[in-house]
Design a protein that fits this description.
This protein is mainly α. It is elongated.
Length: 173
Amino acid sequence: MKSMDFNFEVKVKSAYEALAQSVSLFKTYLDDKTAASSPDYYRAKSLLKEGKLFFEEVLKEARKLLGPLPPYSTPEYAKWREETARDITLVLGDKVDYEEIKKMLLSDTCLPRLFSAEELEAYLKKYFEHQGKGKRKMENLKCRIAIARLDDLVHEGEELLQKAQKKLQSTLV
């Protein structure tokens, strides 16, 4: 396998765009000024479904590159995995200093598209210490933060979907 087989950042970006649009459309739909028969509900629901599919792909690729090695993996596979994760800048390296990691994440090509600087710092504070515990590796913090952001959007989208369904059903009764 080549590192080009992995489009991790593209899938993260695609998942984020679909989920963020879905949340935005649900919020517009739930506004009192929007009619319950508005097509925004169906578009938002479709985008949420699409975003969740991309999110599943992101999780699958993250597990493949950063999760535990399969029991019978070869040394070549382990080396390929490590090189691929480094090539697509999925791992941070051996940085453990909070300020250095913060600078690195703020100048990253992918993460600033998902977060404002304040949001990125909040997620970093939330996951920095937690990532160093147990079997987790600090070098995987970038991936964990991106996945956490997408997961939060999925949950927000699902909550808004339930509220939107109630609004739609109230007009059908």
